[in-house]
Protein backbone atom coordinates (compact mmCIF):
# COMPACT_ATOMS: atom_id res chain seq x y z
CA UNK A 1 0.00 0.00 0.00
CA UNK A 2 1.50 3.35 0.96
CA UNK A 3 5.15 3.71 1.80
CA UNK A 4 6.32 4.60 5.26
CA UNK A 5 9.48 6.55 4.53
CA UNK A 6 10.60 6.97 8.14
CA UNK A 7 10.42 3.33 9.19
CA UNK A 8 13.44 1.57 10.71
CA UNK A 9 16.00 4.21 9.95
CA UNK A 10 17.68 4.99 13.25
CA UNK A 11 20.72 6.20 11.34
CA UNK A 12 18.68 8.65 9.28
CA UNK A 13 16.94 9.79 12.45
CA UNK A 14 20.23 10.56 14.19
CA UNK A 15 21.48 12.37 11.10
CA UNK A 16 18.25 14.36 10.96
CA UNK A 17 18.54 15.22 14.61
CA UNK A 18 22.09 16.51 14.15
CA UNK A 19 21.10 18.47 11.05
CA UNK A 20 18.22 20.17 12.88
CA UNK A 21 20.33 20.95 15.93
CA UNK A 22 23.04 22.43 13.72
CA UNK A 23 20.53 24.53 11.80
CA UNK A 24 19.17 25.92 15.06
CA UNK A 25 22.65 26.51 16.45
CA UNK A 26 23.72 28.40 13.33
CA UNK A 27 20.58 30.54 13.48
CA UNK A 28 21.17 31.32 17.15
CA UNK A 29 24.78 32.27 16.48
CA UNK A 30 23.67 34.63 13.71
CA UNK A 31 21.09 36.20 16.03
CA UNK A 32 23.65 36.58 18.80
CA UNK A 33 26.08 38.35 16.47
CA UNK A 34 23.30 40.73 15.41
CA UNK A 35 22.25 41.52 18.98
CA UNK A 36 25.04 43.79 20.23
CA UNK A 37 23.91 43.92 23.86
CA UNK A 38 23.65 40.16 24.15
CA UNK A 39 26.95 39.66 22.32
CA UNK A 40 28.87 42.09 24.55
CA UNK A 41 27.37 40.55 27.69
CA UNK A 42 28.09 37.03 26.52
CA UNK A 43 31.62 37.57 25.25
CA UNK A 44 32.85 40.45 27.38
CA UNK A 45 31.53 39.76 30.86
CA UNK A 46 33.67 36.71 31.66
CA UNK A 47 37.05 38.29 30.85
CA UNK A 48 35.94 41.54 32.53
CA UNK A 49 35.04 39.71 35.73
CA UNK A 50 38.42 37.94 35.67
CA UNK A 51 40.19 41.29 35.38
CA UNK A 52 38.06 42.69 38.19
CA UNK A 53 38.76 39.81 40.55
CA UNK A 54 42.40 39.18 39.61
CA UNK A 55 43.56 40.60 42.94
CA UNK A 56 42.02 37.67 44.82
CA UNK A 57 44.39 35.21 43.20
CA UNK A 58 47.55 37.26 43.82
CA UNK A 59 48.78 35.02 46.61
CA UNK A 60 49.30 32.19 44.15
CA UNK A 61 52.31 32.53 41.93
CA UNK A 62 53.46 31.45 38.48
CA UNK A 63 51.68 28.39 37.16
CA UNK A 64 49.13 28.41 39.96
CA UNK A 65 48.26 32.08 39.38
CA UNK A 66 47.56 31.61 35.68
CA UNK A 67 45.71 28.38 36.50
CA UNK A 68 43.51 30.22 38.98
CA UNK A 69 42.75 32.88 36.37
CA UNK A 70 41.77 30.24 33.82
CA UNK A 71 39.49 28.54 36.35
CA UNK A 72 37.90 31.92 37.11
CA UNK A 73 37.39 32.63 33.41
CA UNK A 74 35.61 29.35 32.80
CA UNK A 75 33.45 29.79 35.89
CA UNK A 76 32.38 33.33 34.92
CA UNK A 77 31.81 32.14 31.38
CA UNK A 78 29.46 29.43 32.61
CA UNK A 79 27.47 32.05 34.47
CA UNK A 80 27.31 34.80 31.84
CA UNK A 81 27.81 33.17 28.45
CA UNK A 82 25.69 30.17 29.27
CA UNK A 83 23.33 30.87 32.15
CA UNK A 84 22.46 34.55 31.77
CA UNK A 85 22.65 34.61 27.99
CA UNK A 86 20.53 31.50 27.49
CA UNK A 87 17.89 32.73 29.93
CA UNK A 88 17.42 35.82 27.75
CA UNK A 89 17.58 33.80 24.51
CA UNK A 90 14.95 31.39 25.71
CA UNK A 91 12.66 34.22 26.86
CA UNK A 92 13.12 36.05 23.57
CA UNK A 93 12.31 32.99 21.46
CA UNK A 94 9.28 32.24 23.60
CA UNK A 95 7.92 35.78 23.48
CA UNK A 96 8.35 36.09 19.71
CA UNK A 97 6.47 32.75 19.44
CA UNK A 98 9.41 31.05 17.80
CA UNK A 99 9.41 28.20 20.33
CA UNK A 100 5.75 27.56 19.65
CA UNK A 101 6.44 27.34 15.94
CA UNK A 102 9.17 24.77 16.43
CA UNK A 103 7.11 22.80 18.94
CA UNK A 104 4.61 22.13 16.16
CA UNK A 105 7.32 21.12 13.68
CA UNK A 106 9.57 18.12 13.10
CA UNK A 107 12.13 19.52 15.50
CA UNK A 108 11.90 17.97 18.96
CA UNK A 109 12.06 19.99 22.16
CA UNK A 110 15.41 18.45 23.05
CA UNK A 111 16.84 19.39 19.67
CA UNK A 112 15.62 22.95 20.20
CA UNK A 113 17.18 23.19 23.65
CA UNK A 114 20.49 21.76 22.52
CA UNK A 115 20.48 23.91 19.37
CA UNK A 116 19.94 27.09 21.38
CA UNK A 117 22.85 26.17 23.67
CA UNK A 118 25.33 25.45 20.87
CA UNK A 119 26.62 29.01 20.29
CA UNK A 120 27.01 29.69 24.02
CA UNK A 121 28.95 26.49 24.54
CA UNK A 122 31.12 27.20 21.52
CA UNK A 123 31.88 30.72 22.75
CA UNK A 124 32.77 29.34 26.16
CA UNK A 125 35.18 26.78 24.69
CA UNK A 126 36.73 29.44 22.44
CA UNK A 127 37.17 31.82 25.37
CA UNK A 128 38.84 29.08 27.36
CA UNK A 129 41.35 28.33 24.60
CA UNK A 130 41.97 32.02 23.96
CA UNK A 131 42.48 32.75 27.65
CA UNK A 132 44.90 29.84 27.91
CA UNK A 133 46.94 31.33 25.08
CA UNK A 134 46.86 34.84 26.59
CA UNK A 135 47.91 33.49 30.00
CA UNK A 136 50.67 31.39 28.45
CA UNK A 137 52.07 34.45 26.70
CA UNK A 138 51.57 36.98 29.52
CA UNK A 139 52.44 34.80 32.54
CA UNK A 140 53.15 31.06 32.71
CA UNK A 141 51.01 28.55 30.85
CA UNK A 142 48.52 26.89 33.28
CA UNK A 143 49.61 23.36 34.15
CA UNK A 144 46.69 21.63 32.43
CA UNK A 145 47.11 18.40 34.40
CA UNK A 146 44.10 16.68 32.84
CA UNK A 147 42.89 18.28 29.56
CA UNK A 148 40.22 15.64 29.06
CA UNK A 149 38.68 16.45 32.43
CA UNK A 150 38.77 20.16 31.52
CA UNK A 151 36.70 19.50 28.40
CA UNK A 152 34.31 17.11 30.18
CA UNK A 153 33.80 19.67 32.96
CA UNK A 154 33.17 22.51 30.53
CA UNK A 155 30.59 20.49 28.58
CA UNK A 156 28.84 19.22 31.70
CA UNK A 157 28.82 22.69 33.24
CA UNK A 158 27.45 24.19 30.04
CA UNK A 159 24.72 21.54 30.02
CA UNK A 160 23.72 22.06 33.65
CA UNK A 161 23.67 25.85 33.45
CA UNK A 162 21.85 25.77 30.13
CA UNK A 163 19.13 23.70 31.78
CA UNK A 164 19.01 26.06 34.75
CA UNK A 165 18.69 28.92 32.24
CA UNK A 166 15.75 27.29 30.48
CA UNK A 167 14.05 26.65 33.81
CA UNK A 168 14.71 30.28 34.90
CA UNK A 169 13.14 31.56 31.69
CA UNK A 170 9.86 30.19 33.03
CA UNK A 171 9.98 32.83 35.76
CA UNK A 172 11.00 35.59 33.39
CA UNK A 173 8.43 37.69 31.59
CA UNK A 174 10.72 39.67 29.35
CA UNK A 175 14.33 39.84 28.24
CA UNK A 176 14.81 42.91 30.47
CA UNK A 177 13.46 41.24 33.60
CA UNK A 178 16.05 38.48 33.19
CA UNK A 179 18.44 40.89 34.94
CA UNK A 180 16.39 40.33 38.09
CA UNK A 181 15.28 36.74 37.72
CA UNK A 182 18.78 35.41 37.10
CA UNK A 183 20.16 37.03 40.26
CA UNK A 184 19.37 34.22 42.73
CA UNK A 185 21.18 31.57 40.71
CA UNK A 186 24.02 33.94 39.78
CA UNK A 187 24.64 35.05 43.40
CA UNK A 188 24.21 31.68 45.05
CA UNK A 189 26.23 29.84 42.43
CA UNK A 190 29.01 32.40 42.36
CA UNK A 191 29.05 33.12 46.09
CA UNK A 192 29.20 29.52 47.20
CA UNK A 193 31.39 28.19 44.40
CA UNK A 194 34.64 28.50 46.32
CA UNK A 195 35.92 30.77 43.57
CA UNK A 196 35.86 34.08 45.43
CA UNK A 197 36.73 32.70 48.87
CA UNK A 198 37.66 29.19 50.01
CA UNK A 199 34.64 27.26 51.28
CA UNK A 200 36.51 26.05 54.40
CA UNK A 201 36.20 29.50 55.99
CA UNK A 202 32.49 28.67 56.32
CA UNK A 203 31.03 26.60 59.19
CA UNK A 204 31.36 22.96 58.12
CA UNK A 205 27.63 22.37 57.64
CA UNK A 206 27.37 25.43 55.40
CA UNK A 207 30.55 24.45 53.57
CA UNK A 208 29.17 20.98 52.93
CA UNK A 209 25.97 22.47 51.55
CA UNK A 210 27.95 24.95 49.49
CA UNK A 211 29.74 22.07 47.81
CA UNK A 212 26.38 20.95 46.51
CA UNK A 213 25.62 24.25 44.73
CA UNK A 214 25.98 23.91 40.98
CA UNK A 215 29.11 25.97 40.35
CA UNK A 216 31.12 24.53 43.27
CA UNK A 217 31.79 21.15 41.61
CA UNK A 218 32.70 22.99 38.40
CA UNK A 219 35.36 25.06 40.21
CA UNK A 220 36.63 22.03 42.10
CA UNK A 221 36.93 19.97 38.91
CA UNK A 222 38.61 22.78 37.00
CA UNK A 223 41.18 23.28 39.77
CA UNK A 224 41.93 19.57 39.68
CA UNK A 225 42.10 19.41 35.91
CA UNK A 226 43.87 22.71 35.20
CA UNK A 227 46.18 23.22 38.18
CA UNK A 228 46.18 19.76 39.70
CA UNK A 229 45.09 21.13 43.07
CA UNK A 230 42.60 19.16 45.15
CA UNK A 231 39.95 20.72 47.39
CA UNK A 232 42.24 20.32 50.42
CA UNK A 233 45.04 22.15 48.63
CA UNK A 234 47.18 19.05 47.96
CA UNK A 235 48.78 18.62 44.57
CA UNK A 236 47.52 15.65 42.54
CA UNK A 237 48.76 13.53 39.65
CA UNK A 238 46.79 12.79 36.49
CA UNK A 239 45.41 9.56 37.94
CA UNK A 240 44.50 11.24 41.22
CA UNK A 241 42.75 14.05 39.35
CA UNK A 242 40.27 11.47 38.07
CA UNK A 243 39.64 9.78 41.42
CA UNK A 244 39.44 13.10 43.26
CA UNK A 245 37.06 14.31 40.60
CA UNK A 246 34.48 11.59 41.11
CA UNK A 247 32.56 13.28 43.90
CA UNK A 248 32.20 16.70 42.19
CA UNK A 249 31.39 14.93 38.92
CA UNK A 250 28.61 13.08 40.73
CA UNK A 251 27.27 16.40 42.05
CA UNK A 252 27.26 17.85 38.53
CA UNK A 253 25.50 14.80 37.12
CA UNK A 254 22.93 15.11 39.91
CA UNK A 255 22.40 18.74 38.89
CA UNK A 256 21.79 17.68 35.31
CA UNK A 257 19.02 15.39 36.57
CA UNK A 258 17.61 18.31 38.58
CA UNK A 259 17.95 20.41 35.42
CA UNK A 260 15.82 18.06 33.32
CA UNK A 261 13.19 18.00 36.03
CA UNK A 262 13.28 21.80 36.40
CA UNK A 263 12.82 22.32 32.66
CA UNK A 264 9.77 20.08 32.64
CA UNK A 265 8.42 21.79 35.72
CA UNK A 266 9.01 25.45 34.86
CA UNK A 267 10.02 26.12 31.30
CA UNK A 268 7.31 27.60 29.10
CA UNK A 269 7.08 27.17 25.37
CA UNK A 270 4.26 29.65 25.01
CA UNK A 271 4.17 33.28 26.19
CA UNK A 272 2.39 34.01 29.42
CA UNK A 273 -1.08 35.32 28.93
CA UNK B 1 -6.00 -3.48 -4.14
CA UNK B 2 -9.46 -3.33 -2.71
CA UNK B 3 -8.62 -1.74 0.62
CA UNK B 4 -9.75 1.84 0.92
CA UNK B 5 -7.04 4.09 2.30
CA UNK B 6 -7.46 4.83 6.02
CA UNK B 7 -8.76 8.30 6.88
CA UNK B 8 -6.13 10.94 7.39
CA UNK B 9 -7.73 12.01 10.63
CA UNK B 10 -9.90 9.94 12.94
CA UNK B 11 -11.20 11.47 16.14
CA UNK B 12 -13.51 9.61 18.51
CA UNK B 13 -15.11 10.97 21.66
CA UNK B 14 -12.48 13.65 22.20
CA UNK B 15 -12.78 15.98 25.16
CA UNK B 16 -10.25 18.51 26.34
CA UNK B 17 -10.26 20.39 29.64
CA UNK B 18 -8.03 23.11 31.03
CA UNK B 19 -7.21 23.97 34.59
CA UNK B 20 -8.94 22.23 37.45
CA UNK B 21 -5.79 22.22 39.55
CA UNK B 22 -5.20 24.47 42.55
CA UNK B 23 -8.85 25.11 43.21
CA UNK B 24 -9.83 26.64 39.87
CA UNK B 25 -12.82 25.18 38.15
CA UNK B 26 -11.85 23.19 35.05
CA UNK B 27 -12.99 24.54 31.72
CA UNK B 28 -13.96 21.98 29.12
CA UNK B 29 -13.17 23.51 25.74
CA UNK B 30 -13.88 20.40 23.67
CA UNK B 31 -16.86 18.36 24.81
CA UNK B 32 -17.06 15.16 22.84
CA UNK B 33 -16.06 15.42 19.19
CA UNK B 34 -16.15 12.70 16.55
CA UNK B 35 -14.56 13.53 13.25
CA UNK B 36 -13.24 11.73 10.19
CA UNK B 37 -11.28 13.50 7.49
CA UNK B 38 -10.42 11.63 4.31
CA UNK B 39 -7.32 11.90 2.19
CA UNK B 40 -7.35 14.80 -0.23
CA UNK B 41 -10.19 16.66 1.46
CA UNK B 42 -10.22 20.29 2.40
CA UNK B 43 -12.04 20.32 5.68
CA UNK B 44 -13.02 23.62 7.28
CA UNK B 45 -13.75 24.02 10.95
CA UNK B 46 -15.94 27.00 11.74
CA UNK B 47 -17.18 28.39 14.99
CA UNK B 48 -17.54 31.49 17.09
CA UNK B 49 -14.68 32.70 19.25
CA UNK B 50 -14.29 30.31 22.17
CA UNK B 51 -16.18 27.53 20.41
CA UNK B 52 -13.18 25.22 20.86
CA UNK B 53 -11.75 25.28 17.33
CA UNK B 54 -8.17 26.02 18.30
CA UNK B 55 -8.35 23.63 21.27
CA UNK B 56 -9.41 20.88 18.89
CA UNK B 57 -6.80 21.89 16.31
CA UNK B 58 -4.06 21.65 18.95
CA UNK B 59 -5.18 18.09 19.67
CA UNK B 60 -5.05 17.24 15.95
CA UNK B 61 -1.65 18.91 15.57
CA UNK B 62 -0.32 16.83 18.46
CA UNK B 63 0.39 19.89 20.59
CA UNK B 64 -1.90 18.62 23.33
CA UNK B 65 -3.37 15.31 24.36
CA UNK B 66 -7.12 15.04 24.75
CA UNK B 67 -8.37 14.50 28.32
CA UNK B 68 -10.63 11.77 26.97
CA UNK B 69 -10.97 10.09 23.59
CA UNK B 70 -8.90 8.72 20.74
CA UNK B 71 -7.05 10.60 18.01
CA UNK B 72 -5.31 9.13 14.98
CA UNK B 73 -3.52 11.33 12.48
CA UNK B 74 -2.08 9.57 9.42
CA UNK B 75 -2.65 6.37 11.36
CA UNK B 76 -0.66 7.38 14.45
CA UNK B 77 -1.13 8.96 17.83
CA UNK B 78 -0.06 12.56 17.12
CA UNK B 79 1.46 13.10 20.57
CA UNK B 80 3.12 9.79 21.41
CA UNK B 81 4.16 9.06 17.84
CA UNK B 82 4.90 12.63 16.82
CA UNK B 83 8.17 11.55 15.20
CA UNK B 84 6.18 9.58 12.66
CA UNK B 85 3.52 12.21 12.13
CA UNK B 86 5.39 15.53 12.14
CA UNK B 87 7.55 14.99 9.03
CA UNK B 88 4.31 14.53 7.08
CA UNK B 89 2.38 17.53 8.39
CA UNK B 90 2.63 21.29 8.06
CA UNK B 91 1.13 23.77 10.49
CA UNK B 92 0.14 27.42 10.36
CA UNK B 93 -0.63 28.26 13.98
CA UNK B 94 -3.15 30.94 14.78
CA UNK B 95 -0.30 32.90 16.28
CA UNK B 96 3.39 32.29 15.88
CA UNK B 97 6.40 34.40 15.17
CA UNK B 98 9.94 34.86 14.07
CA UNK B 99 13.10 36.42 15.44
CA UNK B 100 12.86 39.92 13.97
CA UNK B 101 16.61 40.17 13.36
CA UNK B 102 16.58 37.36 10.80
CA UNK B 103 16.10 38.08 7.12
CA UNK B 104 13.27 36.36 5.28
CA UNK B 105 15.58 34.16 3.20
CA UNK B 106 17.64 33.23 6.27
CA UNK B 107 14.56 32.13 8.16
CA UNK B 108 13.37 30.12 5.16
CA UNK B 109 16.65 28.29 4.65
CA UNK B 110 17.14 27.66 8.39
CA UNK B 111 13.64 26.18 8.50
CA UNK B 112 14.30 24.06 5.40
CA UNK B 113 17.31 22.53 7.13
CA UNK B 114 15.07 21.26 9.92
CA UNK B 115 12.79 19.36 7.51
CA UNK B 116 13.11 15.82 6.16
CA UNK B 117 11.72 16.52 2.72
CA UNK B 118 12.13 20.24 2.11
CA UNK B 119 11.18 22.08 -1.05
CA UNK B 120 13.65 24.72 -2.18
CA UNK B 121 13.21 27.80 0.06
CA UNK B 122 13.44 30.21 -2.87
CA UNK B 123 10.72 28.32 -4.72
CA UNK B 124 8.38 28.44 -1.72
CA UNK B 125 9.03 32.14 -1.07
CA UNK B 126 8.14 32.72 -4.69
CA UNK B 127 4.93 30.77 -4.24
CA UNK B 128 3.73 33.21 -1.54
CA UNK B 129 5.07 36.25 -3.37
CA UNK B 130 7.82 37.06 -0.90
CA UNK B 131 10.75 36.83 -3.30
CA UNK B 132 11.16 40.62 -3.51
CA UNK B 133 11.29 40.74 0.30
CA UNK B 134 13.73 37.89 0.85
CA UNK B 135 16.62 40.16 1.80
CA UNK B 136 14.55 42.15 4.31
CA UNK B 137 14.70 41.72 8.09
CA UNK B 138 11.54 40.01 9.34
CA UNK B 139 11.00 42.87 11.81
CA UNK B 140 10.19 45.18 8.89
CA UNK B 141 7.61 42.91 7.26
CA UNK B 142 3.94 43.86 7.39
CA UNK B 143 1.45 41.65 9.22
CA UNK B 144 0.23 40.21 5.95
CA UNK B 145 3.77 39.46 4.78
CA UNK B 146 4.49 37.63 8.03
CA UNK B 147 1.37 35.58 7.53
CA UNK B 148 2.56 34.66 4.05
CA UNK B 149 5.91 33.62 5.51
CA UNK B 150 4.01 31.45 8.02
CA UNK B 151 2.27 29.80 5.10
CA UNK B 152 5.54 29.37 3.20
CA UNK B 153 7.19 27.57 6.12
CA UNK B 154 4.13 25.36 6.63
CA UNK B 155 4.17 24.09 3.05
CA UNK B 156 7.95 23.88 2.75
CA UNK B 157 8.10 20.31 4.07
CA UNK B 158 5.85 18.92 1.31
CA UNK B 159 3.18 17.98 3.86
CA UNK B 160 0.57 15.33 3.16
CA UNK B 161 -1.59 17.03 5.74
CA UNK B 162 -1.69 20.77 6.30
CA UNK B 163 -3.24 22.49 9.31
CA UNK B 164 -4.22 26.10 8.75
CA UNK B 165 -5.51 27.90 11.83
CA UNK B 166 -6.99 31.16 10.56
CA UNK B 167 -4.32 31.46 7.89
CA UNK B 168 -5.66 34.54 6.14
CA UNK B 169 -6.45 36.73 9.14
CA UNK B 170 -4.76 40.07 8.52
CA UNK B 171 -4.32 39.54 4.80
CA UNK B 172 -5.59 42.08 2.30
CA UNK B 173 -8.16 40.77 -0.19
CA UNK B 174 -5.56 40.28 -2.92
CA UNK B 175 -3.19 38.28 -0.72
CA UNK B 176 -6.14 36.29 0.55
CA UNK B 177 -7.03 35.27 -3.01
CA UNK B 178 -3.40 34.35 -3.62
CA UNK B 179 -3.38 32.23 -0.45
CA UNK B 180 -6.56 30.51 -1.60
CA UNK B 181 -4.96 29.72 -4.95
CA UNK B 182 -1.95 28.29 -3.17
CA UNK B 183 -4.15 26.10 -0.96
CA UNK B 184 -6.26 24.98 -3.93
CA UNK B 185 -3.10 24.04 -5.77
CA UNK B 186 -1.97 21.89 -2.86
CA UNK B 187 -5.35 20.19 -2.59
CA UNK B 188 -5.26 19.51 -6.34
CA UNK B 189 -1.94 17.72 -5.77
CA UNK B 190 -3.55 15.54 -3.11
CA UNK B 191 -2.72 17.40 0.11
CA UNK B 192 -5.31 17.08 2.85
CA UNK B 193 -6.07 20.42 4.49
CA UNK B 194 -7.74 21.23 7.80
CA UNK B 195 -8.66 24.88 7.95
CA UNK B 196 -10.21 27.09 10.58
CA UNK B 197 -11.45 30.48 9.55
CA UNK B 198 -13.62 33.38 10.54
CA UNK B 199 -14.40 34.13 6.92
CA UNK B 200 -17.42 32.19 5.77
CA UNK B 201 -16.62 33.12 2.21
CA UNK B 202 -13.28 31.40 2.64
CA UNK B 203 -14.94 28.19 3.80
CA UNK B 204 -17.49 28.42 1.01
CA UNK B 205 -14.76 28.96 -1.59
CA UNK B 206 -12.37 26.26 -0.42
CA UNK B 207 -14.01 23.59 1.67
CA UNK B 208 -15.15 20.20 0.42
CA UNK B 209 -16.72 19.62 3.80
CA UNK B 210 -17.10 21.71 6.88
CA UNK B 211 -18.10 21.44 10.48
CA UNK B 212 -19.44 24.12 12.77
CA UNK B 213 -18.36 24.05 16.38
CA UNK B 214 -20.36 25.63 19.14
CA UNK B 215 -19.66 25.40 22.86
CA UNK B 216 -17.15 22.59 22.41
CA UNK B 217 -19.13 20.28 20.16
CA UNK B 218 -19.68 19.91 16.44
CA UNK B 219 -23.27 20.97 15.85
CA UNK B 220 -23.35 20.83 12.05
CA UNK B 221 -21.23 18.95 9.53
CA UNK B 222 -21.44 18.31 5.83
CA UNK B 223 -20.71 19.84 2.46
CA UNK B 224 -21.43 23.58 2.19
CA UNK B 225 -24.44 22.75 0.00
CA UNK B 226 -25.82 20.24 2.51
CA UNK B 227 -25.44 22.66 5.40
CA UNK B 228 -27.12 25.45 3.55
CA UNK B 229 -29.91 23.11 2.46
CA UNK B 230 -30.71 22.39 6.12
CA UNK B 231 -31.52 26.04 6.67
CA UNK B 232 -34.85 27.57 5.59
CA UNK B 233 -34.99 30.06 2.75
CA UNK B 234 -36.55 33.45 3.35
CA UNK B 235 -39.16 35.58 1.56
CA UNK B 236 -39.66 39.20 2.61
CA UNK B 237 -41.94 41.94 1.37
CA UNK B 238 -43.97 44.86 2.66
CA UNK B 239 -47.67 45.69 2.30
CA UNK B 240 -49.38 48.93 3.25
CA UNK B 241 -52.75 47.39 4.13
CA UNK B 242 -53.27 44.54 6.57
CA UNK B 243 -54.44 41.49 4.63
CA UNK B 244 -54.72 37.77 5.14
CA UNK B 245 -51.97 35.84 3.23
CA UNK B 246 -52.74 32.58 1.41
CA UNK B 247 -51.73 29.28 3.06
CA UNK B 248 -47.97 28.76 2.74
CA UNK B 249 -45.64 25.93 3.70
CA UNK B 250 -43.30 28.24 5.60
CA UNK B 251 -43.53 30.12 8.88
CA UNK B 252 -45.04 33.54 8.51
CA UNK B 253 -44.30 36.57 10.63
CA UNK B 254 -45.64 40.08 10.24
CA UNK B 255 -44.41 43.25 11.91
CA UNK B 256 -46.28 46.53 11.50
CA UNK B 257 -44.47 49.81 11.81
CA UNK B 258 -45.05 53.35 10.47
CA UNK B 259 -47.98 52.39 8.27
CA UNK B 260 -46.26 49.41 6.65
CA UNK B 261 -46.49 45.73 7.46
CA UNK B 262 -43.23 43.88 6.98
CA UNK B 263 -43.91 40.22 6.18
CA UNK B 264 -41.27 37.56 6.41
CA UNK B 265 -41.65 33.87 5.64
CA UNK B 266 -39.09 31.22 6.55
CA UNK B 267 -39.64 28.27 4.29
CA UNK B 268 -38.10 25.01 3.16
CA UNK B 269 -40.23 25.17 -0.02
CA UNK B 270 -39.06 28.44 -1.47
CA UNK B 271 -40.19 27.80 -5.01
CA UNK B 272 -43.69 26.57 -4.08
CA UNK B 273 -44.38 29.32 -1.55
CA UNK B 274 -43.13 31.97 -3.91
CA UNK B 275 -45.35 30.68 -6.72
CA UNK B 276 -48.42 30.66 -4.43
CA UNK B 277 -47.62 34.10 -3.15
CA UNK B 278 -47.09 35.66 -6.56
CA UNK B 279 -50.24 34.05 -7.97
CA UNK B 280 -52.22 35.32 -4.99
CA UNK B 281 -50.83 38.85 -5.31
CA UNK B 282 -51.55 38.86 -9.03
CA UNK B 283 -55.14 37.64 -8.45
CA UNK B 284 -55.78 40.20 -5.72
CA UNK B 285 -54.11 42.99 -7.65
CA UNK B 286 -51.68 43.58 -4.79
CA UNK B 287 -48.12 44.76 -5.26
CA UNK B 288 -45.51 43.17 -2.98
CA UNK B 289 -43.21 45.99 -1.87
CA UNK B 290 -39.44 45.47 -1.62
CA UNK B 291 -39.83 41.81 -2.49
CA UNK B 292 -36.83 39.75 -1.60
CA UNK B 293 -36.59 35.96 -1.87
CA UNK B 294 -33.39 34.12 -1.17
CA UNK B 295 -32.00 30.67 -0.43
CA UNK B 296 -30.19 30.21 2.86
CA UNK B 297 -26.53 31.19 2.95
CA UNK B 298 -23.67 29.71 4.90
CA UNK B 299 -23.68 32.90 6.91
CA UNK B 300 -27.32 32.46 7.86
CA UNK B 301 -26.63 28.86 8.87
CA UNK B 302 -23.66 30.02 10.92
CA UNK B 303 -25.57 32.78 12.66
CA UNK B 304 -28.44 30.49 13.54
CA UNK B 305 -25.97 28.10 15.17
CA UNK B 306 -23.98 30.81 16.91
CA UNK B 307 -27.06 32.37 18.46
CA UNK B 308 -28.04 29.14 20.18
CA UNK B 309 -27.26 28.88 23.88
CA UNK B 310 -24.76 26.23 24.91
CA UNK B 311 -26.79 23.02 25.00
CA UNK B 312 -24.63 21.38 27.63
CA UNK B 313 -26.57 21.59 30.86
CA UNK B 314 -24.02 19.66 32.89
CA UNK B 315 -21.77 22.71 33.09
CA UNK B 316 -24.23 25.48 33.91
CA UNK B 317 -21.63 27.68 35.56
CA UNK B 318 -18.83 27.18 33.08
CA UNK B 319 -16.97 30.31 32.23
CA UNK B 320 -14.17 30.75 29.84
CA UNK B 321 -11.08 31.65 31.74
CA UNK B 322 -7.81 32.95 30.39
CA UNK B 323 -5.60 29.88 30.47
Structure, described:
The complex is a heterodimer of chains A (273) and B (323). Chain A is 72% helix and 0% strand. The longest helix of chain A is centred in the first third of the chain and has 33 residues, at 63-95. Chain A has helices at residues 10-34, 36-53, 63-95, 98-103, 109-138, 147-169, 178-181, 183-191, 204-210, 215-227, 238-266. Chain A is built from eleven helices and no strands. Chain A has one domain (15-266). The model of chain A has no long low-confidence stretch (mean pLDDT 89). In chain B, α3 runs parallel beside α5 and α4 packs across α5. Chain B is α/β, with parallel strands linked by helices and 323 residues long. Chain B has helices at 53-60, 82-85, 104-112, 121-127, 143-156, 173-188, 200-206, 224-230, 270-284, 298-306, and strands at residues 9-18, 27-37, 42-47, 68-73, 89-92, 161-165, 192-196, 209-214, 217-222, 233-239, 251-257, 260-267, 289-294. Chain B folds into two domains: 9-228, P-loop containing nucleotide triphosphate hydrolases (Rossmann fold), CATH 3.40.50; 232-295. In chain B, 39% of the residues are buried. Classes of the chains: A mainly alpha (273), B alpha/beta (323).
Features:
heterodimer; A: 273 residues; mainly alpha; 11 helices; 72% helix; globular; B: 323 residues; alpha/beta; Rossmann fold; 6-stranded mixed β-sheet; 4-stranded antiparallel β-sheet; 10 helices; 13 strands; elongated
- The structure class of chain B reads alpha/beta
Query: Structural class of the helix and strand makeup of chain A?
Result: mainly alpha
Q: List segments of chain B where confidence is low: pLDDT < 50 over at least 5 consecutive residues.
A: 312-323
**In whole angstroms, how far apart are the ends of chain B?**
48 Å
Strand order of the largest sheet of chain B: 5-6-7-3-8-9
The strand count of chain B comes to 13
**Oligomeric state as shown:** heterodimer
Overall shape of chain A: globular
Amino acid sequence: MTTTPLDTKPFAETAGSLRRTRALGATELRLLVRNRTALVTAVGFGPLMVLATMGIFDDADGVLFSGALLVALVAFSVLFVVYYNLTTVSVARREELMLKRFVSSETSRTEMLVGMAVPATAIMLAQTVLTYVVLAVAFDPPALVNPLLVVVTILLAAGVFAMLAYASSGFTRSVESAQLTTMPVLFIAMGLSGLLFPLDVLPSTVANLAQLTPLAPVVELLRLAISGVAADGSVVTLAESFSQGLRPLAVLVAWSVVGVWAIRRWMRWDPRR
Amino acid sequence: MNTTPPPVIEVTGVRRSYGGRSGTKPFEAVRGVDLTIERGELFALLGTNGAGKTSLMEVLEGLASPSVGRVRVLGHDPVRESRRVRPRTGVVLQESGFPGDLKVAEMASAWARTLSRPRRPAEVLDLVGLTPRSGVAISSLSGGERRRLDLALAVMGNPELLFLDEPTTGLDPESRRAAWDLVRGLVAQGTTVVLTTHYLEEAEQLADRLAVMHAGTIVRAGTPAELVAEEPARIEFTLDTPVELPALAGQHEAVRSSGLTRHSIETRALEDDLRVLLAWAHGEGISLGALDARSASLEQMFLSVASRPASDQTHPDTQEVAA
